[in-house]
Structure formats: C-alpha cells, structure tokens
Amino acid sequence: MEEQYSQIRGQQSAIQRILDANLDRAREGLRIIEEWCRFGLNHSQLAEQCKEMRQELARWHSTELRMARDTPGDPGTALTHPQEETRSSIEHLLQANLCRIEEALRVLEEYGKLYNPEMGIVFKQMRYRAYTLESHLLVYRRHQKLRESLLYLVTCPHENIFAVVEAALSAGLTLVQYRDKETEDLSRLSIAYKLSQLCYDYGALFIVNDRVDLALAVNADGVHLGQQDMPIALAREILGSQKIIGRSTTNPQEMQQAIAEGADYIGVGPVYETPTKAGKAAAGLEYVRYAAKNSSLPWFAIGGIDTANIKDVLTAGAQRVSVVRAIMQAEQPALITGQLLSLLTRKRTFPQLQPKTNVLTINESTEK
Asked: What residues bind 2-[(2R,5Z)-2-carboxy-4-methylthiazol-5(2H)-ylidene]ethyl phosphate, as annotated (predicted)?
C-alpha cells in the first residue's frame, strides 16, 4: 500500500512540475510577442490580447505548482538545439515563440485534465485564441512590411538567380517577386521554394507571379496577378485572407477596379517601354502622377526603371518602385540595390498608409 501511495505521489509531483514548466514557457513566449506588438508594431490591441492571456495563465500558476519545481534536478535544462541559439529575423523570432506558446498550451490542456478538469477546458480555449493571435499578428506584420518596402525586385530567368537575389537582400531589399514564364513547373517549384527560404532567412516578403498554386505550394507571402489572370476574389479564396495579393494596372480604370476588388497593392506602369512587357505601350509618367494623387493602396511604379531615370519617376510622385533588369542584369546587384534604396529612402516623406480594416480586426472567432 505504501509503495502504491508513493507511486501516486510521484506521478502527482511529475504532473505538477510539467504544469509549472509549461505555464512558465507559455507566459515567457507571450511576453516576447507582447513586447513586439507594443514596441515594434505600436499595436495596442494585439499587445493587450497578449497581456490578458499572460494574466490568465498567472492565475493558474498556483503556489502548489511553483513549489513542485526542481530546477537542479531537471535534465531538460541542459538540452538545447542549434536553431534555438540564433534568430535570423523578426519573423523567425515571432514564429518560434508562437509555436512555443501553442505547444505549451497543448501540454497544459492534456496534463491539466489530470490535475484539475477545468484546466483542460480553459487551455483548449486559450490554444485557439493563440492560433487567432498568430494569424492576426502575421497578417499585420506582413502588411506592415509591404507598406514599408520601397523597392520591389521582380526576377527574371537567370543562371545565378539565387546569388543575385541574395546580394540584393543583403543590401536591404525586403520584397521579392519570382517571375518566370519559361521554365517547366518542376524546376519552377524548386526555384520558388529556395527563393522563399532565402527571403524568410532575410526577413523579406516573397511573392509569386501569376501562379496561385505555386504560391500556395511554397507558402509564399502572396501572389501578383496581371489583368488577364484569375479574379482577386478567387485568389483570395484559395490563398486565404492572410496572404498579399497584388495587381498590375496600366491606367486609372484598372487601378480603381483593382482597389474595388480588394487588391493589397498595385503595380503602376509600365512607366517606360521594357522588354518585360514586349509590345505594350508605356503608360508614362502621367499615370504615375495620377497614382500619386488617387491610389488609396501602396503602389509601385514599374517598367524600365533604373538608376538613370528613377529621379524622374520620384519627381512625378512615386514613393516605391519595382525593378527587373536594373538589379537582375547588374554586375554588382548589391551596389545597385543600395543606390536605389538610398534614393528612395531620401524621397520617403509621406505618412504611413493604414492597413485594411480586416487586417486590424483581432476580435473575429507586381509586375506580371
């Protein structure tokens, strides 16, 4: 009988230690997310949501559970993994801690059922709240980065595409679109996946041109659609509300239609004639001037823009530009990227555009 009692007592102690460790883990992860929402995003609603969850966890963190802690005797304190030692970007840091929170809540849900049946119910509900927090946080962060991006690189087939893109990313580029209408699908899938990982490592957004299926397959940040591609609403249905959708426009009518259909950003051009748009007349600087006065969305002037003519485009009212050959065919892509970003940064004096309402609602249960 004594042996059985000792075994039961040992199990209870182990469960208490598990609950204590995971309450700490979830609270720590939430604090890390909360700090970024508060100081990085200046988003009081998301920060408050994190704080409420932390406080609710604290109410369950009883003295009995804390007293069960045995840090010197815990073999897990010596365990580590190389991925835990570094964080390559804010996105990486946020994702790692969101996963930490969700995993801890699942442990609390399951072991909590053995300690207090109510814990299983409470932490199951909180886990779904954490999933919602993750969704809204990543959407907000994604759209924030879109608004902050001044230079947009659209790739073209290139034998050293990864080296060129990485050079541009290392120089501060934060927005890349994979555009390739020639390569077979299996190769495109491989290239898109590698570019997606490269952008993730540098904390940059990755967009796929035309192909919603390819964007979905490599978990891209979004897709860019031309005038002849699928409707924005259908792309949104396939990709989900979290992804970015851009639309090419060549005149005021197409711009207003893209805005009405729910695009997240638009391409404005081609400003100059370009082989990327063979046979299409340039929209010219007049359309740039129109966009500067009338677009309610982030927009990128595009088409034949390089270091020689970018000042004219900026003078016409552009704040953001998209380039292809200027970087993809440059002997020193990092240098050109730096020069373009320097010119764009000096020009940027406009107030921040606000994200769409649906991006900020947290209480709900480019070149083609």
From this structure: 274-276, 304
Q: Can 248 be counted among the known catalytic residues?
A: yes
Helix residue spans in 181-245 (DSSP H): 185-202, 212-217, 232-239
**Which one is catalytic: 17, 179, 211, 347?**
179
* Average pLDDT for 333-361: 71
The answer to whether 270 and 304 are in contact (CB under 8 A) is yes
Give me the pLDDT at residue 346, please.
Answer: 87
Phi, psi dihedrals of residue 177, rounded to the nearest 5°: -120, 130
Q: For position 353, what pLDDT does the model report?
A: 43
At the top level of CATH, the class of 150-360 is alpha beta
Per residue in 89-99, pLDDT (tens digit) is: 788 899 899 99
Is 275 one of the annotated binding-site residues? yes
DSSP reduced 3-state for 33:
helix
Which of 27, 211, 277, 347 is catalytic? The answer is 277
Q: Please name the residues in contact with 134: beta carbons below 8 A apart, sequence gap of 6 or more.
A: 98, 102
- Tell me: is residue 179 an annotated ligand-binding position: yes
Domain residue limits, the chain: 2-144, 150-360
Closest CA relative to residue 322, chosen from 273, 256, 279, 270: 270
Consult the annotation and say whether 366 binds a ligand.
no
Please determine, for residue 272, whether its predicted confidence score (pLDDT) is greater than 70: yes
Burial class (CB in 10 A: 0-12, 13-18, 19+), 243: buried
Let me know: does 301 contact 268? Beta carbons within 8 Å.
Answer: yes
pTM as predicted: 0.75
φ/ψ of residue 151, rounded to 5: -120, 135
Instruction: Quote the Cα angle for 103-105-109, to 5°.
Output: 120
